[in-house]
Fold this sequence. Notes:
Layout: H1 2-11, E1 20-22, E2 25-30, H2 35-43, E3 50-57, E4 67-69, E5 75-77, E6 87-95, E7 98-105, E8 110-112, E9 117-122, H3 126-134, H4 141-146, H5 151-160, H6 167-180, H7 182-195, H8 199-210, H9 216-227, H10 231-243, H11 247-258
Parallel strand pairs: 1-8, 2-9, 3-9
Antiparallel strand pairs: 3-6, 4-5, 6-7
Helix pairs in contact: 3-5, 5-6, 6-7, 6-8, 7-8, 8-10, 9-10
Amino acid sequence: MRLAFWLVAAVAPVAAQPKLLIDAQVDTRSAAAGLEREFRQLLSAQPQPAWIGYSVPSVRSSQLGCEYVSPGGRSAPGVIHLEPPREAVILLRVVNGALDKIRALSPDCEIDAGGVPFHWLADVRPAESVTLLGAIDRPEVIMAIAMHADGSADAALERLIGSAQPEAVRRRALFWIGAARGAHGLDVLKQYLATETSTALRERAISGIAASSEPAAIDLLILLARQDKDARVRRQAMNAIGRSRDPRAQTFLESVLKQ
């Protein structure tokens, strides 16, 4: 019985609106009939500007947090998560019937809606969220996709590193595959490095590996620093190793100095 409870909890849609939502004209509706359908209806809903928000199960990533703007106009981190959150809040701002902005935040962030309408969607299926976001051509959407704890996010990100995509999109997706997609993401980048010919894109893949929290990431960086055929890629891997606090990095650097 206990196992059954946890299985139900694992697949149940995340529905609760943000805990610290303030100054918002909130209405809640279900997206059980389809996220795309609800989103299209809300694009034309008045008044605007307005925000559309929902939650999805999230990868356990330290990349998902809050931002607070200091009086000097600089952003600083908000809530400090000792353990990464289990959900991500996806926020979409609409103005004049069009999408204006996308944010992916921790559910623990204080969110001030500025008095505008805030449409909260319950019963959102993660794969439908990935499909919706994947159809949006905006830089910030890649990070939002990467935060989804769903296999559809892996597939979407892997499409974004394909040769048909603009280089700027490929570069951003390469980073987030490493930073957020765990062991699977590390395997994707390893395979990518074995076949990609662009030095600039291969260097970006190194940045993604360096951002990975997987224990195997440092081993892959050491292998690349030793054996990659491209001197620039080897140098990028060495730089990433130099920034690592992993004892294996220190041991490797000491061995290089002794040569």
